[in-house]
Specification:
This protein has 294 residues and is α/β, with parallel strands linked by helices. The protein has 2 domains: 203 residues, Metal-dependent hydrolases (TIM Barrel); 57 residues, DNA polymerase, domain 1, CATH 1.10.150.650. It contains 10 helices and 7 strands. α1 packs parallel to α2, α4 packs across α5 and α5 packs across α6. It is globular and about 55 Å long. It starts with a strand and ends in an 11-residue tail after the last helix. The structure holds adenosine monophosphate, zinc ion and fe (iii) ion (2 copies). Zinc ion (ZN) binds next to loops.
């Protein structure tokens, strides 16, 4: 069974609709897809339909950008109750923070001689629940100012580049607690990846996060080289954390992140589902179902 637990659709900053993403998964020979759009579960319904139609598996999830000790950490949440009110309120704060920064990015870019408008950017995110830097990048591409998202990030939008603008991010530990209270399990996404300023979370940091309710570490990710994967796997093993692998697919929006490029081992997937069951039971919430492939 080929399991890919981290993907993005047009509902956030990918380029495929959830249905197109599942069709692409079928073509790539991926059997189980984790749909983890940024800050939203709005793609879940369409994903359930597509999974059912194609006989593929689905793990509904979401990716949240959090902060931990002043550093950005991406958190994957799976199988939580999407109606859990405290989490919905946190997501609303995140979406507000996203909206607020579009205008600032546009004005910095204009100052740099890159004439795009807020309307240009919003046109790129028309199908999405919120607007992110990839949509700003798409607007620059459409105006012919850069070649692709990669160039837009490396020259202007990445952390440390001139048009980078901070946005509100909730605290990592509180977010882990909130997802657990919503009946979901959490996995740190690409912990040693390039996501902005993320410092290397070490074994003691992971031990602490596990005590706060963390279930796993995304080890096999394109941002991690082979040596990092070996070290992270050892940490996960020592701490009895689940090891996941995934593509972080964004459709045409991200190079070298094709569906199935990294996979989660079936026994690790089983372990994650076991933890999800336990967390859901402890939370008392009604949690979404996992679809297994036919
Ligand atoms: P935001 O959530 O608005 O801060 O934007 C972060 C998103 O930008 C993440 O989903 C990343 O996957 C994406 N991203 C970061 N660097 C790049 C890049 N070089 N090319 C394409 N997308 C990127
Ligand atoms: Zn993204
Ligand atoms: Fe991420
Ligand atoms: Fe992602």
């Amino acid at each position: 069974m080929r399991i890919d637990l981290h993907t993005h659709s047009r509902v956030s900053d990918g380029t495929d609709t959830p249905s197109e993403l599942f069709e692409a998964a079928r073509l790539a020979g991926v059997d189980v897809v984790g749909l983890t759009d940024h800050d939203t579960t709005d793609g879940w319904d369409e994903a359930y339909q597509a999974a059912e139609t194609l006989g593929l598996g689905l793990v509904p999830g979401m990716e949240l950008s959090t902060q931990h000790q002043g550093h950005s950490v991406h958190l994957l949440a799976y199988l939580h109750d999407p109606t859990y009110q405290p989490l919905c309120e946190e997501i609303d704060r995140i979406l507000e923070g996203r909206d607020g920064r579009v205008e600032r990015m546009v004005s910095v870019l204009s100052g740099l001689g890159l004439p795009i408008t807020v309307e240009d950017v919003l046109a790129e995110s028309a199908d999405a629940v919120s607007t992110g830097r990839p949509h700003v990048a798409d607007a620059l591409v459409r105006r012919g100012l850069v070649l692709d998202r990669d160039e837009a990030f490396s020259r202007f939008l990445a952390w440390g580049r001139p048009a980078y603008v901070e946005r509100y991010a909730p605290d990592l530990v509180s977010t882990i607690a909130m997802v657990s209270a919503a009946g979901g399990v959490t996995v740190i996404a690409h912990p040693w990846g390039r996501s902005g300023v993320s410092r290397r979370l070490d074994e003691s940091a992971f031990a602490y996060l596990k005590a706060q309710g963390l279930s796993g570490i995304e080890v096999d990710h394109q941002d991690h080289d082979p040596a990092m994967r070996v070290q992270l796997e050892a940490i996960a093993h020592n701490l009895d954390l689940v090891v996941t692998g995934s593509s972080d697919y964004h459709g045409r929006g991200k190079k070298d992140h094709e569906l199935g490029v990294n996979l989660t081992a079936p026994e690790q997937f089983e372990a994650l589902l076991e933890r999800a069951k336990a967390v859901a039971a402890a939370s008392g919430r009604v949690t979404p179902t996992v679809v297994m492939p036919r």
